[in-house]
Amino acid sequence: MARPTLRHLAEELDLSITTVSRGLAGYSDVAAATRVRIRETAARVGYVPNSAGQSLVTGRSGFVGLLLPLRDPPVIDPFLGEFLTGLGEGLVARGRDLFLATAQASQSEMEVLQRVVESGRADGLVLTRVAESDARVEYLLDKGFPFVTHGRTIDENLRHCWVDTDGADAFARAFDILYSDGHRDFALVSIDEPQSFRRFREDGLRRAIAARNDPAVSLQQRRTPRFDQQARTQAIYDLLSNDERPTAVLALTDEIALTVLEQAAELDIAVPDELSVIGFDNLPASAWVTPALTTFDQHIRDTAVGLADQLLDLIDGNASNSALSPSHRLIHPDLIQRASHGPAPRRHKESGGEGNRDFMS
Amino acid sequence: MARPTLRHLAEELDLSITTVSRGLAGYSDVAAATRVRIRETAARVGYVPNSAGQSLVTGRSGFVGLLLPLRDPPVIDPFLGEFLTGLGEGLVARGRDLFLATAQASQSEMEVLQRVVESGRADGLVLTRVAESDARVEYLLDKGFPFVTHGRTIDENLRHCWVDTDGADAFARAFDILYSDGHRDFALVSIDEPQSFRRFREDGLRRAIAARNDPAVSLQQRRTPRFDQQARTQAIYDLLSNDERPTAVLALTDEIALTVLEQAAELDIAVPDELSVIGFDNLPASAWVTPALTTFDQHIRDTAVGLADQLLDLIDGNASNSALSPSHRLIHPDLIQRASHGPAPRRHKESGGEGNRDFMS
DNA sequence: GGTGCGTTCCAAAACGTTTTGGATCCTACC
DNA sequence: GGTAGGATCCAAAACGTTTTGGAACGCACC
Lengths: 361, 361
What we know:
The structure is a homodimer of 361-residue chains.
Chain A (H helix, E strand, L loop, with lengths): L5 H8 L3 H9 L6 H14 L5 H8 L4 E6 L11 H13 L4 E6 L6 H11 L4 E4 L7 H9 L3 E4 L10 E5 L1 H14 L4 E7 L4 H17 L5 E7 L4 H13 L6 E4 L2 H13 L9 E3 L5 H5 L6 E3 L2 H17 L4 H4 L3 E4 L2 E3 L25
Helix pairs in contact in A: 1-2, 5-13, 8-9, 10-11
Chain A binds a DNA duplex (30 and 30 nucleotides) through α2 and α4.
């Protein structure tokens, strides 16, 4: 027999479809003995409810969707695997499955979004990599569709549920560590795109600098397009071969930090003796490289589990909960101290004094 | 209005549900003018067919499933992101979505498999990381359910569709390169688990050695549990601090190769001058590490696209195609020549002669 | 005028499930 | 003996779609 249905069970048991259905669901409506009989036969023939039938009548698909952004240059998100594993873990614990909606390069992400929402293929959505202001968020809020985001938007942080990494705090901590180690000449190497994670990390650094209120502190900034490795390498090369080379570099991501290490090696700049580098992400490569990169771990997997929980609360509870008091969670990244940072080098000019750093503008 | 249905459209257009449905599907039995009218209104109200209704009547869910193995120690598959991106790419091009079934640690993977197959949530399945003999494959063959696997099983390669990397060939090539560079003392560092990719790679190496038929060639082997990094490091340390240390190490995976590089550095063994190392996988870390690792690129993304194509052919075409002449594809990995391999070092004993290597057993 | 055919439309059934609103029978109680 | 109420079961409707098997109409042809 192909797939057994409720009707097959009903016939075999000489019961009605209703009774079989309610027996399986455990309603007190059906006699205990009958319930046992039903369950036994169901188990024996390996009955599994057809999900299309189920979701047609319940209005629930049992799926949570994730929009998979297919980038124009085919770049693989290094966190995707970890993130998905976490989502899967969080979802399966509460009986849902994950569904990946891939956006073709040709059609816009918004079209895919609409298709998913309107077709009822998913009961809720997870959005990643939100932009500072994000059209997807607006659309979903407008539709009243349950969703959570990994990362915040800038403008209106309170209108929907999110989980985010506290990048501002991490960058402030990184700065404090380096400052305490005597560094005064900083550089920030970042990207050229209005991603909100960039905004928070950069702001965190700037606020930490401002809080010190030390005129000796200088900050150079370099921003290049996110997926243009060549431009990035060039910018870092320029930064490091500069007369006013910084003694400490904060990289927006490990990917950038690794390039900093590479270019430092290229220019025979000793890390960490002459240059301290701190990244963010804790990529696997960061542990293998020499010197091993000091960085922050985002706990991507935990973040994803948290997002799954948040979303399921939204779906299972009252969906309008989102509008009333959306849940937010800021995850505290862990500093992974490794070998790429250390005390500031003595400057070439042995001036001794503190505020007397003539190479600064 | 919530989600518009065919009935809403029909009422608005003063047509029957049938006509609207067939108009949208483009059947010739609705007048061209009507068809245009239908399409216009559908687009205007943003009609998207409800997928539960659709799949209930068509028997197709529109989903392809992937079983996500949740490992007991929570290890993240480093290829998952790339693999999924490829799958998504291959599927979206032909109008399907991907669905991830996570297996809880508690329930066995087989239970999840059965649930997916019987519930009709997926029209086909992708299996990864097949074991030398795999219960999942047996089950699906038995059920006649469409599926493809990434990797082959050992025993019966011809009963189902697969795409695999030609690991045997890669390891043979790696051996030939090292042999031509003068290496005679080899080691293979591998895992302790009956994964079929291990089998093929190891066999490829052994056959290449046999083909040379050179009694001067020796091969030491080390196998440790797959996810026990400590045991692995220890085994590699032992191997390299051994009196009869090899001059060339072939690592089953880059993850292993990186540990070899790490331990070589620990023991002050210069790579590649004193030790050549070749890996397999082309992990991102392998490019960043010093010396950069020579390895093979598996083209995971292309592999995944190929799997998607194969599976959709199976689903859309005749499913029994699988039994008659299942499609196989062997992907040729690319050698990525980097800095971790080179000519064999002169041995300490300057014996000059060829077959006169007294430290060998 | 009847026949046949092509065009355009539609009512109804079907997919498999859950839920609603009883129906039936039995027991207990007055 | 009649009735209330509990226990157990079920027929039918509903979810939204696709497909089957016509129906209705107009036109051309003999």
